[in-house]
Write a structure and sequence with these properties.
single chain, elongated
Length: 84
């Protein structure tokens, strides 16, 4: 197996930790909610304005359950430089 310098391995570890945090938050949703979120994102192509008012409210409710603020803090802490 080829050896990789530490500089190449570290970003992979950071990505793996971020993926695990994303998985943890994704699993906060029930299976039905995950399916509905995927459908809404696919239908809107990332543009909330492409959804009806009712669909936007449902999207907001589901995303609120994901606790994205905490997720962002967890992911941002993985690769950032820490001040002393």
């Amino acid at each position: 197996m080829p050896r990789f310098p530490l500089a190449r391995r570290v970003p992979i570890l950071i990505l793996a930790q971020a993926a695990m945090a994303l998985r943890d938050h994704w699993n906060l949703l029930e299976a039905k909610e995950r399916k509905e979120l995927a459908r809404l994102l696919k239908e809107s192509k990332g543009r909330p304005g492409a959804l009806s008012k009712k669909e936007r409210e449902e999207l907001r409710r589901i995303v609120g359950k994901l606790d994205v603020l905490t997720l962002g803090k967890r992911v941002a802490g993985f690769g950032g430089r820490r001040r002393r």
